[in-house]
């Protein structure tokens, strides 16, 4: 079976949560008899074709990027060519350009869509995009959402419940090997014995300004690992609050991330808007058996982090509630250990890459079989 994945960006250009999910699907599905190809945009697509893991990546030149949407003239021809060679196309939503390419190329391939997130921030543009969006969603044969929580709370998905199923994202433990001793030692010497950790791109919906307010006046060390568009604003806020207990690492590689996850006391993930549809970083914390703190925003974050079982959940955009949860985990080390063990168990039960891949490939097979039947 040959599957074409289509999304606005991918490795090696960017390394966000959706890119990680696509990578895990491509890698894991190979063992299940699926040959994957990824088509994406790139500001610098040289070379145009390259190998990532066991799958090919084709990159169209990005001509324009406005309102989180990349545009490309050459992607139409590249998509049409790739779709002709595929048995099935797996789209990754949202990306309005993708909808236009889908209809303009008239590719007639069976279509699966991973619905990663509602459109939250661009409300004015959403009003213009809605007719095309619903036409696009109606044209999909199957829609996959990452958690039953998101399906239940989305304003859009209930219209398509008959073709929608929930398949939680998963990670491969082998992708997080023990780090070299010298690298672990480097971080142990640089960091305090206990600290809270955040890992992620520093975006508007991550709720980090509330996290900074939460630690003001405390002596809890906080490591913020990542870079992004909100970085300068957050550092200015930390300066105004007089915070001296923050360590900013900037963007880190996978080895350093594994070191930090191993060493941290607890993981804090204060995303406060539905743009945070799942939270791959929470899965990484659970894989490492760490207690988590997250916000109840009606998305997959609370599917990963179950209050009282794997960590603590609090009201969104509430620095006082965040502070109380952090104090609880900092003081009650027995509770922290218990919740961390619960997180590790839930990861093995719900969130392995093998489980995600097997369920996704079953969706592919059922769809192709139904097409043969008709």
Overview of the molecule:
This protein has 374 residues and is of the alpha/beta class. It has 2 domains: 2-172 and 352-373, 3-Layer(aba) Sandwich (Rossmann fold), CATH 3.40.50.2000; 178-350, Rossmann fold (3-Layer(aba) Sandwich), CATH 3.40.50. Helices cover 43% and strands 20% of the residues. The strands form 3 sheets. It has an 8-stranded mixed sheet, sandwiched between helices. The protein has a 6-stranded parallel sheet with strand order 13-12-11-14-15-16, with helices on both faces. Strand 14 (266-269), helix 10 (280-287) and strand 15 (292-295) form a beta-alpha-beta unit. The model has no long low-confidence stretch (mean pLDDT 95).
Short description:
By secondary structure, this protein is of the alpha/beta class.
Question: Layout of helices and strands, plus pairs?
Answer:
Elements: E1 2-6, H1 17-30, E2 35-42, E3 49-52, E4 55-61, E5 64-66, E6 69-71, H2 75-85, E7 88-93, H3 96-105, E8 111-115, H4 123-138, E9 142-145, H5 148-153, E10 164-166, H6 181-190, E11 196-199, H7 208-215, E12 222-225, H8 231-241, E13 246-250, H9 254-263, E14 266-269, H10 280-287, E15 292-295, H11 301-304, E16 311-314, H12 319-331, H13 333-350, H14 353-373
Parallel strand pairs: 1-2, 1-7, 2-4, 7-8, 8-9, 9-10, 11-12, 11-14, 12-13, 14-15, 15-16
Antiparallel strand pairs: 3-4, 5-6
Provide the CATH superfamily of the largest domain: Glycogen Phosphorylase B
Work out the count of structural domains.
Answer: 2
Largest sheet features: 8 strands, mixed
- Give the CATH topology of the largest domain: Rossmann fold
* Helix share bin: 40-55%
For the biggest β-sheet, the strand order reads 3-4-2-1-7-8-9-10
Compute the average pLDDT. Answer: 95
**Strand segment count:** 16
Distance separating the two termini: 19 Å
Order of helices and strands: EHEEEEEHEHEHEHEHEHEHEHEHEHEHHH
How would you classify the helix and strand content by structural class?
Answer: alpha/beta
**Residues in β-strands, percent:** 15-25%
What is the name of the CATH architecture of the largest domain?
A: 3-Layer(aba) Sandwich
Low-pLDDT residue intervals, each spanning 5 or more residues: none
Radius of gyration: 21 Å
Morphology:
globular
The CATH class name of the largest domain reads Alpha Beta
């Amino acid at each position: 079976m040959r599957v074409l994945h289509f999304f606005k960006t991918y490795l090696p250009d960017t390394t966000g949560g959706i890119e990680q999910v696509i990578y895990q699907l491509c890698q894991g599905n190979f063992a299940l008899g699926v040959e994957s190809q990824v088509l994406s945009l790139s500001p610098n697509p040289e070379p145009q074709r390259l190998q990532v893991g066991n799958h090919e990546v084709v990159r169209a030149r990005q001509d324009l990027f406005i309102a989180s949407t990349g545009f490309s003239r050459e992607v139409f021809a590249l998509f049409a060519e790739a779709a002709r060679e595929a048995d099935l196309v797996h789209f990754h939503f949202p990306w309005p350009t993708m909808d236009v390419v889908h209809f303009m190329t008239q590719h007639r391939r069976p279509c699966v869509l991973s619905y990663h997130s509602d459109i939250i921030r661009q409300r004015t543009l959403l009003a213009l995009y809605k007719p095309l969006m619903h036409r696009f969603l109606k044209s999909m044969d199957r829609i996959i959402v990452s958690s039953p929580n998101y399906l239940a709370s989305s304003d859009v998905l209930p219209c398509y419940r008959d073709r929608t199923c929930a398949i939680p994202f998963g990670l491969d433990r082998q992708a997080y090997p023990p780090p070299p001793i010298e690298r672990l030692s480097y971080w142990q010497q640089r960091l305090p014995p206990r600290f809270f950790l955040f890992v992620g791109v520093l975006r508007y919906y991550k709720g980090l300004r509330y996290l900074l307010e939460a630690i003001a006046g405390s002596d809890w060390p906080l490591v913020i690992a990542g870079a992004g568009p909100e970085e300068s604003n957050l550092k200015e806020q930390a300066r105004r609050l007089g915070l001296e207990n923050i360590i900013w690492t900037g963007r880190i590689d996978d080895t350093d991330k594994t070191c930090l996850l191993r060493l941290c006391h607890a993981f804090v993930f204060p995303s406060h808007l539905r743009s945070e549809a799942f939270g791959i970083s929470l899965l990484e914390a659970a894989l490492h058996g760490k207690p988590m703190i997250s916000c109840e925003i009606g998305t997959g974050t609370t599917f990963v982090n179950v209050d009282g079982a794997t960590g603590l959940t609090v009201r969104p955009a509430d620095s006082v509630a965040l502070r109380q949860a952090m104090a609880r985990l900092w003081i009650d080390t027995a509770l922290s250990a218990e919740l961390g063990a619960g997180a590790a168990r839930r990861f093995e039960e719900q969130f392995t890459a093998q489980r995600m891949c097997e369920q996704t490939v079953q969706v592919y097979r059922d769809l192709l079989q139904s097409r043969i039947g008709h």
